[in-house]
Specification:
4 helices; 2 strands; single chain; alpha+beta; two-stranded antiparallel sheet
């Protein structure tokens, strides 16, 4: 469990950006995992509303796209 708790944020940081690839686990947790967003549900769809001026929105979007990309054939 301890290895997973260390490895998953590090892998997420590597997918997000070059800065987060070298960042500590606490930095990754503060900037990418604890997202200051609001989750809304409308017509059975979930929408994540992220603040416009959030400094790490591009890194979070890159991480989200990498994790939710269609599988390679």
């Amino acid at each position: 469990m301890a290895v997973l708790a260390h490895s998953l944020p590090r892998a997420a940081g590597a997918l997000a950006s070059a800065f987060h690839a070298r960042a500590t686990t606490a930095t990754i947790r503060d900037r990418l995992i604890n997202v200051p967003a609001r989750l809304a549900r409308s017509a059975r769809r979930l929408t994540l509303h992220v603040p416009e001026r959030w400094p790490w929105s591009e890194d979070f979007t890159q991480l989200f796209s990498a994790v939710h990309a269609p599988p390679a054939l």
